[in-house]
Design a protein that fits this description.
alpha/beta, globular, 742 residues, Rossmann fold, 31 helices, single chain, seven-stranded parallel sheet, Hypothetical protein af1432
């Protein structure tokens, strides 16, 4: 536990080809700049202490064994962050002339010191144990040269104070003294300031390390005037947004599919005068579509980006190599306008992984929550819980044609509905694009396959150049029906059970084929909001009523057919998976009595559906409340899990697998991965991304045939391989078609 100080007789470095002094100075300047850009109010410590917090973050690298490792380009024998924390408190003792125990109980200072301790990892509760345990029985030798660097930047510190502070830290940690434990001092009320400081420190450190200037990001509201893209004469809603100078209130908009909600939401967000706009959509395919075909027409790419957990794999498949800085800027919301999913916001609110790097940017933002009905009730309840804590620091607009009543009820005290119900109803009444036909209700998939009249009808529709969609509730049903269609049919199968590289390719193919008439597209719910296309006819398996309306929104979407187009509902409530049987029974009752004169009838019946199903939401509501309370108690510490490992959407457990036929390709990629040293983070990350492109997500089934599902799995090279046949046209096949036995 001894600390010695001696000359190193070499220049101190932060890493190969970067001097430690230069790095400390750059991070101090970067950190202050980032903090001032993002935080409106004054940070609650003196300016000198704030600067010191950034400057001292890597001072622990002055330990001589660490310096030797840096010069030899090897992994350091110990972490430097705990030594940086000790340096920081030693300087505070001399600067403030205060006792160490008094300083340790100052919550504002603990924000800074915990940021220093955790700036290379998620700020989780066990981090302190993991790091401080490294020096308990080590001889620590500090390079004397660091004191000259500190003095040069007016952070004067005596050697004796450092030695004494080090001794007290080691004793305090060994004896588990209250004042030395971060989890004894840090409290939930510190979270906001902690997020801002941690974010500024980590990003300031990154930009210095990769030798890049801090990006010049404009406040979102300065990027474009809404008058450029919003037309007030289109509707009362457009006129309302257009004429309102500034928005302070949060608003709810219920509008029909294809009404132009994207630009209404963007115009509202710009008029809130918030620093950042976070446009949330439920699926990556829509996010890419809104990015490429809507927002990019008006907004410079330097101010706009999209991000989901599949960002890196999709970008790599479509554009090849990607710069690390571009990935980090997308992942951590550095652009003025980010299109993302609600999942990403909830991960920040829950404190997942390095959450402050996103959360600091969520403060003073406007959130556009578009198509919320496509998220799980758990996610919507969870969002409404966290809204209570963040409501004063952001704005929200919620938009949907099928807005869940339970969500409206939950958030009503924080939102206004700018128009009376009769105005909303009059908008829906203007549209009459679809007719729900139940003549096939009760017919199972096997009945449809054998139905010669149906095939005859399909041939007639195809001869008329129609685009036809069949939407099934499970992949297996979609695969079986696709195989049953005559070989001469222009047909295409699309669902979520493809490896990612095939899924990206198939989605691009599908978009191209949909521009050619005619076609029969066989799919699952994956297409409901995934493709911005309009079909002429749809066959939809019985599903919850909101899902049927969502699917119907892909029929005659742009009112290109003067007469309402048919949506045929087939299937039976007894074949209910993956939904609850009770929800399908309620839907069937509504469908049996449904008469459509306009889309107002769908709107009214949807409210009836929400009212009848609200009792089935209790478990999701309770779970959301428990998650919220647990996250509050944990603050400001993080949940030490990667966001990709957390699933808030599905009611059933999913597992990521790689079909066994790609085993040799994956083995070669792992060999390539191991050829890079651990510190070569970005090269390793790109290889893991390539491996991810072979992954397909499947529900964890109980049995396949007569065998247990787990018998088909083999964990190797950190990946689960599945011994089921994979076909690039059909996807992963559920039947017992084994090609290799483990």
């Amino acid at each position: 536990m001894e600390l010695n100080i001696q000359l190193f007789n070499k220049e101190l470095i932060a890493r190969k080809e970067q001097r430690l002094e230069s790095h400390l100075k750059e991070v101090m300047e970067n950190g202050i700049s980032i903090l001032r850009r993002n935080l409106k109010e004054k940070f609650p410590v003196k300016e000198e202490i704030l600067k010191a917090g950034f400057f001292f973050h890597d001072v622990g690298k002055s330990e001589i064994s660490i310096q030797k490792a840096l010069y030899e380009d090897k992994k350091s024998p110990i972490s430097h962050t705990h030594l940086s924390v000790i340096f920081f408190y030693a300087w505070l003792r001399d600067f403030l002339k205060k006792d160490l125990y008094e300083l340790l109980q100052d919550e504002k200072l603990r924000i800074i010191s915990f940021s220093i301790l955790s700036h290379h990892s998620a700020p989780h509760r066990e981090l302190e144990n993991n790091i401080f345990s490294q020096i308990l029985n080590k001889k620590i030798v500090i390079a004397k040269e660091i004191f000259d660097i500190l003095k040069k930047y007016k952070f004067t510190l005596s050697e004796d104070t450092l030695k004494d502070t080090y001794k007290k830290f080691i004793e305090g940690y060994k004896e588990n003294i209250y004042e030395f434990r971060f989890d004894s001092i840090l409290t939930p009320k510190l979270r906001k300031n902690f997020s801002f400081f941690y974010n500024a420190l980590v990003k300031g450190d990154w930009y210095s390390a990769i030798r890049t200037e801090i990006p010049r990001v404009k406040p979102a509201f300065e990027i474009i005037d809404p008058k450029v893209f919003l037309y007030p004469n289109k509707s009362k809603f457009h006129k309302y947004i257009y004429n309102t100078k500034d928005f302070k209130e949060n608003i709810l908009l219920e509008l029909p599919t294809g009404f132009g909600k994207t630009f209404l939401g963007l115009a509202y967000a710009l008029k809130t005068k918030r620093n950042k706009i976070l446009y949330t959509l439920p699926v990556t395919t829509i996010i890419e579509d809104v990015y490429e075909n809507s927002l990019k027409k008006y907004i410079d790419e330097n101010q706009l980006e999209w991000y989901t957990s599949k960002y890196l794999v999709l970008k790599s498949l479509k554009k090849g190599d990607l710069e690390e800085s571009a990935y980090l800027e997308a992942k951590y919301f550095e652009k003025s306008i980010i299109i993302t999913t609600l999942d990403q916001l909830l991960f920040s609110f829950l404190g997942v992984d390095r959450y402050p790097l996103k959360e600091a940017l969520i403060y003073d933002s406007c959130i556009i929550l578009d198509e919320p009905q496509l998220y799980s009730p758990l996610m919507l309840f969870l969002f409404s819980e966290f809204l209570k804590d963040y409501k004063d620091d952001l704005n929200v607009i919620i938009m949907s044609a099928t807005l869940p009543e339970f969500l409206k009820e939950k958030v009503k005290e924080y939102f206004i509905e700018p128009f009376d119900q009769h105005v909303i109803k009059s908008i829906f009444e203007r549209f009459n694009r679809v007719n729900i036909d139940i003549s096939y209700l009760g017919f199972l998939i096997s009945n449809l396959q054998l139905n010669s009249e149906l095939q005859k009808n399909l041939r007639k529709l195809l001869s008329q150049g129609k685009k036809i969609a069949f939407i099934f509730n499970t992949v297996k049903k979609a695969q079986n029906f696709y195989n049953s269609l005559p070989i001469d049919f222009p047909k295409y199968l699309f669902h979520a059970r493809y490896i990612y590289k095939d899924r990206v390719r198939k989605l691009m193919e599908l978009k191209n084929k949909l521009n050619e008439n005619p076609i029969v597209v066989v799919s699952t719910q994956a297409i409901e909001a995934g493709v911005n296309v309009s079909f002429d006819v749809m066959f939809r398996e019985l599903a919850p009523f909101d899902s049927i309306i969502q699917s119907a929104g892909r029929v005659n979407r742009f009112n290109e057919n003067f007469q309402p187009c048919s949506v045929y509902v087939f299937g039976d409530e007894n074949d209910y998976l993956p939904y609850k049987k009770e929800l399908l029974k309620i839907t069937k009752e509504i469908l049996m009595n449904l008469k459509i004169r306009s889309e107002l009838d769908l709107f009214i019946n949807l409210r009836e559906y929400w009212e009848k199903t609200k009792n089935y939401l209790y478990s999701a509501k309770e779970k959301a409340n428990k998650l919220y309370e647990s996250a509050k108690e944990l603050r400001p510490f993080a949940i030490d899990l990667e966001e990709e490992k957390i699933n808030l959407r599905d009611a059933y457990f999913k597992i990521s697998v790689i079909p066994i036929q790609f085993y040799d390709e994956i083995k070669k990629l792992w060999e390539k991965y191991r050829s890079f040293e651990k510190k070569n983070f970005w090269e390793r990350k790109k290889i893991l991304t390539e491996i991810e492109s072979y992954i397909v997500e499947v529900p964890f089934l109980g049995k396949i045939g007569n065998r247990n599902f787990k018998d088909y799995l083999q964990l190797e090279e950190k990946n689960q391989f599945i011994n089921l046949k994979y076909d690039p046209v059909l996807g992963l096949l559920p039947e017992e078609e084994l090609i290799f036995y483990f």
